[in-house]
Queue: 2 jobs
Job 1
Amino acid sequence: MNIELIFPILLLIIVVIYIFLSLIIELYKKARIDYVMKSSKKIKKIVDLNNEIDFDFIVEEMTFKERLNSKTQFDNYDYYKHALNYVDENYDIIRKYIKVLDDRNNIFFDYYKQYKKIMNSKRNKTIECNRFYFRNIEKYELYENALCEKVRTKNINKVNLTIMIDYRSNMGRNYYSDFRYYNSDDMVELLEDARVVRKNKERASYQRSLMSMSLRYDVLKRDNYKCCICGASARMDGVKLEVDHIKPISKGGKTVLNNLQTLCMDCNRGKSNK
Ligand SMILES: [Zn+2]
C-alpha cells in the first residue's frame, strides 16, 4: 500500500466515524424527546389545555409614515405628538382594539395560571422512567420542563403602532430614516392621553358656549363698563371693551361671573401675550 495514502484514508475514516456518532447521538436525543412527549402527564395536560381554550389572538400592527422636508424637521421630530395625533384620529377603532386586547389578555392570563398550576403540580416520585433514556427522574424532568415550555401557547396579543419618518436631502445624496415603536402598553397609555385631550377639548367648547349675551352684559355692568386693569371706559375713552376669562378656559377656567372681567382690547392683548 502506498504510504502517502495512509493519512488521507485515516482522515476519511475519522470523518465517517464522527458523522456516524453524531447521527447516533441525534437519533438518541430525538428518541428521548419522543419518549418524554409520549410519557409525560404534564405535557398531555398542557396540550389538552391548549385545545380547550379559544385564544383567538388579536394582532394589530399599525404604521404611520411621514416623509419630511428638511433635516431639521427630521432631527426635531416629536414622535409622541404624532403618535397621540394618530391615536386621536383613529380613536374609536383603537379603543375597540384595546378593549378586545384586554379581553384576550385576560383569557391568556387565566391560561397561564392554569399552565403554572400544571407545572407546579407534584409528581408521583414512584413513577419509574425508562432507564434506556434517562438515568433518573431529575434528568427526565429537565427534558420535560423544556418541552412544556415549548408546547405552551405564547401570548401574541398585540396592538402596536410604528411611527416611521424619513428624509431625503436635495438630489437624493443623503437618506435618513428612523422610527419609534409603541407596544400594547404604550398604546393603552396613548389612548388614555387622547381621551384626556378629547375631554378637555369638549370641556373648553362647552365653557365657550356658556358665554351668552346676557352674561356678557352682567359682567360689563358689574365692572361699570370700565377696563379692570387700566380703568378706560368705552364712553369716555372710546376703547373697545371685552369680557375676559381671569383663569383661561384652556387652564380649566369656567365661564362664570366671578371668573370673568372687563378688559379693554389693549389690556386683553397684553394679558394673553404673557
Ligand atoms: Zn385696559
Job 2
Amino acid sequence: MTVLHPQIKTSRRALLLASAGVSVASTLARPVRAAPADSWTSTQPVLQSAGWFSLKAAGATIHVISDGTGAQSIDLALAPRETVAEYLKRSLLSPETLESFRNVFLIEMPGRRILVDTGYGAQKGRAYERLLSAGLSPESVTDILITHCHGDHISGLLAGSECAFPKAMAWVSLEDLESFRLKNPKEAVRKATERAFAPYFIRRAVHYFNEGEEIIPGIRAYRHPGHTPGHTFYELTSAGQTVVFAGDVAHMAALQFARPDISVKYDMQPEQAAQERKALFARAADSGVLIAGTHLPFPGIGHVRREAEGFSFLPVPFRDRA
Ligand SMILES: [Zn+2]
C-alpha cells in the first residue's frame, strides 16, 4: 500500500468518464504505486489539500474528508426558534439557516486503512471522489466503522450498485442494523439499508461487536443509543492519547456545545441523545480526549472546554509543515 497523499489530479478524468456514462468504479483499475512497507506509517508528513484535512493523533494519521455541506434550517433543533437564533447570533451566524457539515474520517495505521462512515457515496456526496482523487485504491480499505445506519453514513458503502470497498470489513452495531434493515417503519429505509450492506453480507464481511470490544488493535466500540438505537462511538487509543469518533453526537455546534440538553429532530430518542451528548462533552473536557463528529464544523475534530454555560468546541489547529 502507498502512503495516501491527497492531491487533486485524477478527478477530472473520473468526472469525464462518469459524465460519459462510465462508472467511477471502473476508473479504479489504475495501479497504485507500491511504497516500502516502512513508509506506510504515521511518521510521514501530511500534505493538506482542499476539502481534506490530515493530522496525526493517537499513533495514527487521521484524514478528514469533506463529503460536502448543505443549508440546514434552524427548525432542526428541538427548541424554540428564538432560543436557537440567540445562540447562533452569539457565534455571528445567520439566525435563520446554518451550514451543515458532513465529515468522513479515514484512519491510517500500519497494515490498516479504516473509514469511519462512508458519507453519501458517489451519487450525492463528495468524499468518495476525493478519496479516488487522492490516489486511494478502494481495495486498500481494510475496515469501515459504521456509527449508525442513517443514509448520510452508509450510502457510500456502494458506488452505484457495486460494492465501493470490495475488500473491507464493515463493523456495525447489531441493534442499529436491525432497527434500520428489519424494523424501520419506512419500507424505503429498510430497502436502502439492505442494499447498502448486501455486498458485504455476500462476502461475510459484516461484523458486530460486544460492548467495549477491541475490534481492531487500538480501537474499541461502545454503544451510545439516543441518536439511533445502536449509535456507536469508536475510540482510538495509543500512547496515552484517545480520539473518540462520536458520529452524530451533535448537529449544530454553535448551539449544542453551549446547550447539550437540546437535541434535534434526527435524534430518535432525544432525551437519551442529550444525556449521551452531555456525558461525552464532560468527559472530553475533563480528560482531554479529542472528539471527532460527522456534523461538526470541518475538520470536525477537536477538544472540548467547559464554559460558564455548557461547553465550547476547540478544533485542532491547522498544520501544513513540510
Ligand atoms: Zn448524520
